[in-house]
Amino acid sequence: MKKVKFLFIVSLMLTLIFSLTACNSSNSSKTASGGSGGGGSEGEGTVNIGFSGPLSGPAAFYGERTLNGVKMAAEEINNAGGFEVNGKKYKLNIVSLDDKYLPNETGANAKRLIQEHKTPIIFTPHSGGVLALQVFNQVDNFIIGAYTSEPKVTENGNKLTVRIPPRYDGYIKPFSEYAMKRFGNKIAALPTASQYGKDWTETLLPAWEKAGGKVVYNSAIDFTKDTDFFTIVTNALKKKPDVLFIGGASEPTAKVAKQARELGFKGGFIIMDQAKLDEMKKVTGTYEPLEGSIGVLPLVDTQNPGTAEFVKNYKAKHKEDPGSEAGLNYMGMNAFVEAMKAAGSVDDPKKIREKMAEGLKNIPEEKKVYLIPGIDEHGGFESDLIVGAVEQGKIKPIEVK
User: Which CATH superfamily is domain 35-167+305-382 in?
Assistant: First the structure.
């Protein structure tokens, strides 16, 4: 009797183990979009492309919009029949994982993407995540599609990193000159508490002082924990600043600006390039609370060969205008595919990276949402800064000299 009971318990345990294994396998497959990874019909291959970014929490909208750009490029390529490398057709499969904006999660996700999906490229949209991946990406042999304007991610010698947006330090001078001339020389800094926010602050504030300005307040906001900014904004406004430096993901940044206006702030805003004016407007309702802001010119206000068609297609799919997060990652995905074609390989990251300049050059004209003529020696896409300010409730392009 005891033996029968023992065998029954063992059988039950094995059943539970197999059930859990099946559940885990099912959950893993749900992270993929656009097709089944590693499969494909006879004569056709699949290239898995990884993505690790914030898909939950306060930066979720930011993460989703960067992912939307990657997925949109992949869908267009797949719907057109895929792409050919060395006589074989391939389609793209985007495998996306949520890292909650936490660099340690980005690292764990990348290990999973490499081991389970053999992704030659992993996109990530925050500098902390990029720096975490750079610890091992050259050893594990994958390219980082870095959606961050942090210069150091491509100046630290990592040969398998591609920085997609322009470097942020180019914005410091035009942003400062505009804000100081229009509003005054006293600035209070309320940036995101991320490493990226710290780097921006450590670059902007000395430049502000060098130009004759005065820093009256400096304290970061942890958007992963804080949802009400009343106390910190109140403390900053007690110092009577002319300008507030704010930034991080667009939605919480907009809430900071809105709360500052509700507390009586009449000055201007310097908006860190991670936050986008058009995305912030979705939170504030109109541009009126953002009057006097200077930041990145919204994608819909640019005029490049592929912009109008991209905006139309994106809006039809997502029921909203695209921002630069979607547009630049769309360009990045197209550039990687063209680089694979030029390299004659879909799974050799070193060869693909070597052909990025040719990949950018070969992007079809109708897909050029932005004009990116090349890639610099460190791995950063070369493109002009596009700056805009809110004046009288509208976006005005600002020329950068």
Answer: Response regulator (3.40.50.2300)
Burial track 229-254 (b if 16+ CB lie within 10 A, e otherwise)? beebbeebbeeebbbbbbbbbbbbbb
Tell me how far apart the alpha carbons of residues 54 and 399 are, in angstroms, rounded to a whole number. Answer: 33
Question: Residue 309's pLDDT is what?
Answer: 97
DSSP secondary structure string for all residues of 295-324 = EEPPGGG---TTHHHHHHHHHHHHSS---H
- Which residue, chain included where needed, has tokens 């201007």? 268
CA distance 204 to 201: 5
Phi, psi for residue 88 in degrees, rounded to 5: -115, 140
pLDDT score recorded for residue 43: 66
Which option is the CATH number for 169-301+386-398: 3.40.50.2300, 2.40.33.20, 3.30.230.10, 3.30.230.30?
Answer: 3.40.50.2300
Among 104-108, 193-197, 225-229, 349-353, the minimum mean pLDDT is found in 225-229
Q: Is it true that 35-167+305-382 and 169-301+386-398 share their CATH fold?
A: yes
Eight-class DSSP state of 109: H
| Strand blocks (E) in 125-185 | 143-146, 161-163
Radius of gyration of the chain (CA): 23
Whether the predicted model's global pTM rises above the 0.85 cut: no
Going from N- to C-terminal start, the domains of the chain cover 35-167+305-382, 169-301+386-398
Q: How many C-alpha atoms does 153 have within 13 Å on its Cβ side? A: 34
Task: State pLDDT tens for residues 238-283.
Answer: 999 999 999 998 999 999 999 999 999 999 999 999 899 999 999 9
